[in-house]
Amino acid sequence: MKKNIPIAEQLKKKYHKTEEVTNFKDMLYRSGDIYRSRTAFKKKDEKGNIVRVSYEQFKNDVVYLGTSLLEKGFLNKRIAVIGKNSYQWCVSYLAASIVGVVVPIDKELHTDDVINFMNVSQTICILGDSKNLDAILEKIEKVENPDTIFSSLDVSSSSTSFFHLVSEGKASYEAGNTDFDRITVDPDELRILLFTSGTTGNAKGVCLSQRNICSNILSTYGIVKVKRSDLFFSVLPLHHTYECTLGFLLPIYSGASIAHCEGLRYITKNLNEFHPSVILCVPLLLENMHKNIIKNMNQSLPEKFKTPKR
C-alpha cells in the first residue's frame, strides 16, 4: 500500500528552490559574489539623476562601515538606526546587525520616546537623519550614555557622519584591516532589537535573531517567485519588520533591485521615474492612491463624462 504523503510535504515539492542562509553576513557575501555587477539599488544623486548601485558596491559599503564601527569598539554593542527609507539606512542596518545588535527606531516617534528606547536598549551609537539627531541633541541631558556617537546619514561634513565612517573604513580595509570579514555571526543570538506596542499599551522590546528573519526570507522566496529583473519600490517604513524583511532583505537575497520612495507626496512621481514591478502595500496606502487617481481623472475629464448615466 502506497504511503500517504502529508499535504505539507506535497506543497514543499512545488516550492522554488532556495539556497540556505541563516545570517545576514552570509547572505550579504553570497549576494555580493553571485550578483556582483547587477543593480542592487537605484537612487538619485545630488542633481536628481537616477544612478545605480551594484551588489558589489553595496557589499563593500557595508564592510567599510562595519570596519569603522569595529574600530570604534562597537563589537557586540547596541547600535540604533533611525531615518527615512534610504540607501544609507540599509547599509547601516546590515553593518550594525553584523557588528552588534541593531535597534531600528521609528523616525516619527516623539523625541522623548526615541531617547527612552536608546536608554532601554543601552545604545552607544545612533545612525540617523540629521533632523532626528538634532532633535535628540536638543535633549541630550536625557540620554543616559554621555559617550553616545551620533552619525548623520544625510550630512557629510561631520567627522562622525555615515559618509566619513564609510570612507574611513574603506581606507582601513584596503590597508589590511579585515576584522569584519572574520566576524562569526551566531544565527540564534539576539541581533535585532525593535520596539513595538502591538495594538495597545506601552512599547515593548522584541528580541529577534538573524535566523528568525532569514527563515522568513527563504519561506517567502520558496512560495513567491522573485525575479532578478524585479524592481522593488520601498514605500512602507523600513524600521517595520514587514518592509525590512520583504522590501529590503528579500530582494537582496534574490538578486532584485530596490528604489526608495522620497515621501508619500512623491509616490506618483517616483513610480513614473523608477517603473517598479513590486510594491509592498497596506490598505490605507492603496485607498489614498485610488483617491488621487480618481481626483486627477476628474480634473482632466470633460464635464459630460463626470456625471454618471442613469
Summary, kept brief:
With 310 residues, the chain is of the alpha/beta class.
Can you walk me through this structure?
This protein has 310 residues and is an alpha/beta fold. It has one domain (14-283): ANL, N-terminal domain (Rossmann fold), CATH 3.40.50.12780. The protein is 44% helix and 17% strand. It has a five-stranded mixed beta sheet with strand order 2-1-10-9-11, with helices on both faces. Strands 4-3-5-6 form a four-stranded parallel beta sheet, with helices on both faces. The longest helix has 18 residues, at 283-300.
- Overall pLDDT metric: 92
Given the structure, what is the number of helices?
A: 12
Residues in helix, %: 40-55%
The topology string of helices and strands comes to HHEEHEHEHEHEHEEHEHEHEHH
Terminal CA distance: 66 Å
Radius of gyration of CA atoms, rounded to a whole number:
21 Å
> What would CATH call the class?
Alpha Beta
Low-pLDDT stretches are none
Structurally, the number of domains stands at 1
How much strand? 15-25%
* Biggest sheet features: 5 strands, mixed
Q: Per the principal axes of the C-alpha atoms, what is the gross shape?
A: globular
How does CATH name the architecture?
A: 3-Layer(aba) Sandwich
Broad structural category: alpha/beta
CATH topology: Rossmann fold
Instruction: Please tally the β strands and state the result.
Output: 11
CATH superfamily: ANL, N-terminal domain
Placed side by side, the strands forming the largest sheet appear as 2-1-10-9-11
